[in-house]
Amino acid sequence: MRIYKQARTVAVVLILLGGVESLWGQTPRAERYVWRAVTMGGGGFVDGIIFHPTVKDLMYARTDVGGAYRWDAADGKWVALNDWLSAAQFSFTGIESIALDPSDPDRLYLAAGIYRNKPAAILRSDNQGRTFQIFATPFKMGGNEGGRSNGERLAVDPNDGRILFFGSRHEGLWKSGDRGAIWNRIESFPQDGGEGVGIVSVVFENSSGRRGSPTPVIYAAVSTSGTDFFRSDDAGDHWQAVAGQPVGRFPSHAIRSTDGIYYLTYGSSPGPNNVRDGAVWKYNPGTGLWTDITPEKSSGQPLGWGYGGVSVDAQHSSTIVVSTIDRWTLHDEVFRSTDGGTTWRGILLNGPMDYSAAPYSSRIKPHWMGALVINPTNPDQILFGTGYGIWCSTNATRADSGGRVNWIFLDNGLEETVPLSLISPTAGAHLISGVGDIDGFRHEDLDVSPREGTFAGTRFTNTRSLAYAGRKPEIMVRLGSGGNSPVHAAISDDGGKTWALLGSDAPGGTGSRIAISADGASIVVVVQHGSAFVTYNRGATWTKCSGFTGWFIVADPVNAARFYGFDTQSGKLLSSANAGASFEPTAAWTPNMETPGRGGGGILAVATGREGDIWVGGRFGGLCHSTNGGASFSKVVSVDSAEALGFGKAAPGRTYPAVYLLGSINGLLARYRSDDMGKSWVRIDDNRHQFVWADVPLISGDPRVYGRVYITTGGRGIIYGEPAPDTK
């Protein structure tokens, strides 16, 4: 065996506050905030659900980009377990697999690593995910790669909780004897990674061993269309192929029932896309017999499909459920059998589905159904994951008497959207958001999924940019991509309740950013190659903005003739005094900011309700502020770097808006608030609430609620924070 030693107790790094003096001679103090997710409901791919076998209702869910969750049965909600991850740990938001210790319900293991070229680790918890230790691994993972709904590839020995096995994607089978701290590669395993996504399932035959000793019999399934199912009789030291197994398809799941029968699901590819054929097989180790128990064959259908999830009732070993995957034409189904797979009945498509928890989900069919599980203590409850959340049955056993099974969207607390834009207008709904894959939402109540679902009227796949008119906040515009619309920009005259397409797209592309003048009469769009166009008739015609270069555009919130652009390459602010017809650089120079194309970002923002009050910043240039329309700038010397900036209601007794910053002060990258125009700052996030950073980092205060701030994440939706009650 090759041995790779890892540190035994590499704990979560704590960032200490108060250790460095600022250039102002003061350390930014910390203010305690309460953080909550804005309720949309699901929104991302839940690719694994696992119950503890002995503790009632103790279950976990994993996602491809949003970390892991634990179900809180008392409160009826999912609890996010990885909000403590920092920007440097974003790779750990992609959860490759979850493992539980059957003999110790407090122990939880997360195999965390989002892509093959990023760091990977085992996150180990001794308290059901309330805190973790991090152990780097010598193998890589792919929590957001193909086959991510296969599993589970991480498993704990039920007879000896010190032992874990992990089936990697490309580097073979690994074993740990000290609860995931040190890993040894098992050189005798016949496959490194197969043709697909490696070793997808590891299953212990717990009845073959005794408590306190390694379990002798272990099975492992490999993602390959050839020989894929292997057995060890000596606790993993040696392996051999199981005789008589089916070949020609890729296994995605392998599980063992309480009566010792193994069930495997197969597809023509690892999924979650492009699965055009599949099957379900069961294997009896006692007789060596393999039986094809596929509920429905896809041959002869316009588009074929495969089989994803599989689960067996812990109380009735002959009751099995399986889910189809990529059954696009007929729509995916959950099949249930009570006779070991001899006969099946579909229980999803003919069952009523309750969309009230997330009304937007009513227009999305369940798909990518690779995760499926029966509650071991409640046979009526079957859960399956989809590309946008979790569905749950409430009365599955009704199917035994021919009744219809009811389904609810079980996503309270689970938010996995990727927000791309947000605004908090001075009137109307408090939050308008643009979201990847779902278009966006208008939130009057942050704790309720909007009853109208996503935007009414025209819809895009992604809404990338939003803006509202400073003096007429009921007028707002948005810029999107995808969908079936011939135009990718829209306008609303009623605060985002309804939307209508502009007359046409700006020339040269669908655009990257949009701005609207303070009176709502002029709209400027920056297109992909860095030029800008303006329309004065809602897109019927467009005129190129002369003199404009760069990627950033904002409108002055007071003066309807004023727009501002920022050329990140030259460090020049561009100003238009004729409603966007032409731009000229101001005399002021700001520190050179890197362009988005070079991995940097940048900030151009205007303070709410104030004419000519401009802030520019970047990752390397810090933060600069102008109060005279860009004629001159002063540097905010305490800020080392600026990733995002926004404004909210002024503090009591003050008139200038509160300033919210995602950036670095004295080397500490965090989120801050200033109530005095950047002269002093308080840190508002903390080491337990870092939420990684988003690919599109945004931060905005609420102009009507002092202290409230909205932040984007890379897979946890939009988070909003407010000062803790004892700090108000």
Structure description:
With 728 residues, the chain is mostly beta strands. The protein has a domain at 48-409: YVTN repeat-like/Quinoprotein amine dehydrogenase (Methylamine Dehydrogenase, Chain H, 7 Propeller). It is built from no helices and 59 strands. The strands form 14 sheets. A five-stranded antiparallel β-sheet has the order 1-15-14-13-12, with no helix packed on it. A five-stranded mixed β-sheet has the order 2-56-55-54-53, with no helix packed on it. A five-stranded mixed β-sheet has the order 28-32-31-30-29, with no helix packed on it. Strand 5 (59-63) and strand 6 (68-72) form a beta hairpin. It is elongated, with a radius of gyration of 27 Å. Mean pLDDT is 93; it is low at 1-25 and 594-600.
Q: What labels would you give this structure?
A:
728 residues, 5-stranded antiparallel sheet, mainly beta, Methylamine Dehydrogenase, Chain H, 5-stranded mixed sheet
